[in-house]
Every structure is written in structure tokens, then in C-alpha cells.
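Progress against Task 2.4 (sequence-to-structure conversion) is shown through the following example record, which the project officer requested during the mid-term review.
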Amino acid sequence: MDRRGYFSHNSPEGISSGARAAVAGIPACGIGENIAKGQMSSVEVFAGWMASEGHRRNMVNTGMASYGLGRAGDTWVLMLYQPC
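C-alpha cells generated for the chain above:
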């Protein structure tokens, strides 16, 4: 996202986060994705996600057993996976 200059759950080509995970070989029956832009610390970005109903729901969903967190510049992505 940061390198390509967009901020969305779908790529400019319309590919969803779930489809990108599948192409990367991540077997999941459920995917949640939180994205953020502009925060400069993990404390700041997590506080923002926890203050947002939809983002918080992803983070407290006990079915999501695995996750990955990435940051490039001021763009953050948290992927949460529900195993099959």
C-alpha cells in the first residue's frame, strides 16, 4: 500500500485481503484486516483500533487464532486469521 500509494482493503486491481492471503498460501476460514495510516507508534495505532467498533471486533474475536502485523512508513496492516 505504502509503496503503491493507496489505502484500502482492496488493491487497486480490486483484489481483497482474503484473496491476497490465499495467494500467499495462508489457509484460513476467516480473515480480518485492520489498516491504519498516520500513526507513528504501535501504541497509537492500537489505541485507535481499539476505539473503533469494527477494528476492535476483529481484535477481540477469539476465533482469530493467528495474526501478522506490518508497517511501512506510516501505513499499518494487521491481518487476523481464523484457521480451518
